[in-house]
Each structure stands twice: as structure tokens, then as C-alpha cells.
């Protein structure tokens, strides 16, 4: 069975999860998300530090805001600005809105933003865009809604993420139990064709460690990020297969525990002044 996450073509994007399933899964996870979101906070804080020093938005957009953690961070960092928090998962928005941060909380799709042309100075999106099937539409919308001189800063995931778990399942039954993500080459191609000036685009691995495999799988479920692939096997996973999965994953154990590697893409693009 070919691993769709490693194929170096844009066609892999057609195998990404359906956004309706993504929205429903993350809505269900709203109340448990922050308790297990250490990686998300680390990556988002890194992205904030990569914003250009001159960034001082009058209006910003937190694209894929989730529980609003970074909406509140952006509000604190840019107190003179007004913010819009947008997410496709309405359950996340219901959780985020009472906590404040943004001036407006909007249900919407990154591939078709419900915003006027040239209406924001900063688009901040951390670990959300990996769920978008059409990344070219995402960057096209970013260009449309940014004002001249505006910044589009994002973090996302690319192929190779959770490779230890993928390889372990491959050894057990060959099914795609792990979410697929587009390759770095797709991000490079879409950013290059976006009409925005590319300031940086790179990948940094983040490795988490767990004492037991069930800690990892429980965390993925609490985040709403468990397997959403089309064509995933249905029904319950039997005890024998779980035992085989545990044994297969043990091959990766280090003195720090069982590793789970996330391949994090960081991108910063700017809209030219006219």
C-alpha cells in the first residue's frame, strides 16, 4: 500500500480529511482541547516570535482560532488593534467567545473567507491550515483580504508527521489510521504562486514523548485530531490489533519514552505595498 503522505505531488491533497468531519471533530473536542495542547501553544508562540518586527496591525485575523488562546495572545500583543477570530468549528467558537480576545467571532472557511477585500493587516494561523484541502485557495484568500503591506503568518503540518504511528500501523494492517498531510513541496509551490512576497518557509520537527502509546492516542482524541482520513477502516479496533500496534511502536522507544514527531511548517508572507 502506498503511503499517500509521502508522495511528492499536489494530488495528495485530495486525500485530506473532509472539512465537515474536521469541524465536527474539533467542535466535540472544544472542552478538552486546551488541557492537552502543549504542542499547539509551543508552535503558536514560535510563530508569534517570527512576525516581522514592524508588525502593528490595526485589524488582525486569527484564522482557525480554535479555543481562542492565540486570539487572546494577539490582543495582548497588539492592544491598539481589533481582532476577528474565525473557525470552521462552531463548537470551538462557542468555547472561545466568552473568554474574549477578539472583537468578533465568526464561523467561516479559510478557503472562502467571509471578509471584505483589503480589510486586515495581519492574518495569523497556527496549526489549522493542514486541514484545508485547497491550500492555493487559502493563500489566494489571504492575498485578497490583506491590506497592502499586510502579513500572512502560518504554521501547519506536512507529511512525515506522526510517522512513528503511521509506520507502526503499517506493520499491523496496512490501513491509513493516521491523518495524511500535504508534502512540503506543496506549500512551497502554492506560496511561490501566491503573488505574495515570501519572507520565510521552513520546517522544524517537534518531538513529544509518551510513557505509553495510549497516552498519545488519548491526546489526539482530546485534541480532535484523531484519524479523519477518507477511507479509514470503520468499526472498533480489536484487542489483538491494539496489542500488535503497541508491540510495533515499541521499536521506536528511546530513553525519553515513545516519540511522536510533528513536522511543523512555518511560513511568513507579505503583501506588497502598492
Characterise the protein shown here:
With 274 residues, the chain is of the alpha/beta class. The protein has a single domain, classed as Vaccinia Virus protein VP39 (Rossmann fold), CATH 3.40.50.150. The chain is built from 10 helices and 7 strands. The chain has helices spanning 19-28, 30-33, 38-49, 69-77, 90-96, 135-145, 163-172, 184-192, 213-223, 239-249, and strands spanning 59-63, 82-87, 104-107, 120-126, 146-157, 197-210, 258-270. The chain has a 7-stranded mixed sheet, sandwiched between helices. The chain is globular and about 60 Å long. The relative contact order is 0.19.
List keywords for this structure.
7 strands; disordered N terminus; 274 residues; 10 helices; Rossmann fold
DSSP summary: helix tally: 10
Please list the strands of the largest sheet in the order they lie side by side.
3-2-1-4-5-7-6
Quickly give the structural class.
alpha/beta
CATH topology title: Rossmann fold
What is the count of β-strands?
Answer: 7
Q: Would you tell me the overall average pLDDT?
A: 87
